[in-house]
Amino acid sequence: MLGKNGPRSLVWEYFEKNEDSNGAPRAKCNYCGSSYAADSSLNGTLSLGAHLKKCKKYPRNLETKQAKIAFQNISKDQITINAWRFAQEGCRKALAKMILVDGLPFSFVEMKGFRHFINVIQPLFRIPSRRTIRRDCFEFFLEEKKNLKLFFKETRLRVCLTTDTWTSIQRINYMCLTAHFIDKNWNLQKRILNFSPISSHKGDDMAIVITKCLLDWGLDKVFTITVDNASSNDTTVKEMSNQFNK
Ligand SMILES: [Zn+2]
Fold it and tell me: Near ion ligand 1, which residues have CB within 5 Å?
């Protein structure tokens, strides 16, 4: 990240540019004030990166195990006090959740503005690369899937299904399968069970994908199936009811 091959701007999150009395460019550490020659044609940014690794005032090099007291607003006029400690893993998970919830591209984590923002609010956080965050997001998905599967298994709910098909600009057919159900507190819930490529929009093919998906989720109690007004869906529904009767 801080090597000479990395984006040039990144190191300047930690150093301030200035000049010595002869007008030669210098870089001053934002944390301890150490100054280095920083002529872009003579000096790379390697020495700046090396300094950060050993800088005694750089937050990432300080003791992080210590718990702190944090004041947290729980409502407009209520504040609680909690023991708080920085945890890299917890922050990474929260970042993956943000990417998923807000539908952001994985490359978001490498954007200059975001990196600057993190560096200001929590310099201890090591921002993962886009490849790492992609892996984190997938793990998050697997964990959520496991939880939902367990939930379906324990509650043995009756679900209402909705299918929607869609063809992408690359001419790939997709099917989205959504389940609606009422939970034990009488709240309407919605979960996307499957969003996967299908070989065609033919009714038989769709029925196979839906059946496979329901088996995978361990769902065998279906109340209704809602489909688009396309004639091929008549076959889907007919084939589905055959499958259930079996
Ligand atoms: Zn320093």
Answer: 29, 31-32, 34, 55
Going from the Cα of 120 to the center of ligand 1, the distance in angstroms, rounded, reads 16
Whole-number Å distance, alpha carbon 48 to ligand 1 midpoint, is 9
Look-up of token digits 């033919």: 202
Q: What is the pLDDT of residues 107-150, one digit of tens each?
A: 999 999 999 999 888 888 999 999 999 999 999 999 999 999 99
Q: pLDDT tens digits for 90-107?
A: 999 999 999 999 999 999
85 CA from centroid of ligand 1 (Å): 23
Same structural domain for residues 175 and 130?
Answer: no
Rounded distance from Cα 95 to ligand 1 centre (Å):
28
Percent of the chain exceeding pLDDT 90 equals 38
Tell whether 161 and 229 lie within a shared domain.
Answer: yes
Q: How high is the pLDDT of residue 64?
A: 59
Ligand 1 centroid–CA 30 distance in Å is 7
Whether the CB-CB separation of 133 and 95 falls below 8 Å is answered with yes
Question: What pLDDT digit, counting tens, does each position of 59-81 carry?
Answer: 777 765 667 777 877 787 888 88
What is the domain extent for residue 236? 156-245
Assigned domain for 149 exists? no
d(CA 209, CA 14): 52
Residues facing 194 on adjacent strands = 177
Cα–ligand 1 centroid distance for 167 (angstroms): 54
Number of domains into which the chain is organized: 3
Which tokens in the block code for residue 219? 């769902």
Interval between CA 52 and ligand 1 midpoint (Å): 6
Both tokens assigned to 166: 């869609």
Does some domain include residue 78?
Answer: no
Coil vs helix vs strand at 49: helix
Residue 74 lies in a domain: no
Instruction: Give per-residue pLDDT as tens, 33-69.
Output: 999 988 877 777 888 888 988 888 887 777 656 677 7
